[in-house]
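Format is chain and fold; as here:
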Amino acid sequence: MTGPAPLRIGTRGSALALWQAEHVAAGIRAQSGAPPVELVRVETEGDRIQDVALSRLPGKAFFTKELEQAILDGVVDLAVHSLKDVETAVPEGLEILAVLEREDPRDVLLAGPDVDLDTLPAGARVGTSSLRRQAFLRRWRDDLDVVDLRGNVPTRVRRLDDGAYDAIVLAAAGVERLGMIARVNDYFPEWILPPAVSQGAIGVQVRTGDDRVGRWVAPLEHAPTRSATDAERALLREVEGGCQVPLGAHATLRDGRLELAAVICSPDGGRAVDGRREGDAGNAVSIGRGLARDLLARGAGEIMDGIRAARPPDGP
């Protein structure tokens, strides 16, 4: 007698992606009567292209589109993503069925001994390929040499250790998940470096209406994180217009109220527009959209126009 078919979990092959996929797998296995699960590695465009900042490439969904296609093609039953990598417009036939409880959304500084945010020297070579991080670092300290750095977390740390950079900036959640928290020199406060939309959250994507898979994925949902990330993603969708955005946003919930703070910065760090909006947590999407429209009306639209004009000619 054969048992139930295994749930095939699509994942990228990096150490962090595998940790996240195993975390979801453990959540499924913990449920009574759960089927077996297996991980299926899928290489994405973002994994293949390691020598160019993604903000300089045409297109989007660099770390997700191959995984999404694998679900649609029936190669895998679900995919696990860092939610910040998932486009705000999910392909037809797919949905983010579960958002897991968010971990620390902040960014961290890794550097040499005895270096922190207060002692990072002028002229320090700071590595990150995130357009958001680069813009806000330049706004904070225009005396830093902010340069591109691609690769998975261990690769970036190794390049720091090899002396290619004086410091690097990473997401706290990823560093913590990989057991590398001892390498952190300092945490960036949000007034210096506001988090990326959905940073620290894991999203589980499935085929729409797939009840066999959904039965085991739906219980992984963390409602407060869903509300917070829904607000942040609604804001981003209203703003982005198909290109990467130097936008930081973080929604917090307290007693059923949601407060969303966001900042849009020009890539050179010379100009920023910030704002806040709050309301009932059940209105997360409208809160995000409303704040986006406010930011665009107060100058963020001009910043976005400049970013679109600088995009590669084949971009969206």
Notes: The two ends are 52 Å apart (CA to CA). The CA atoms of residues 189 and 271 lie 19 Å apart.
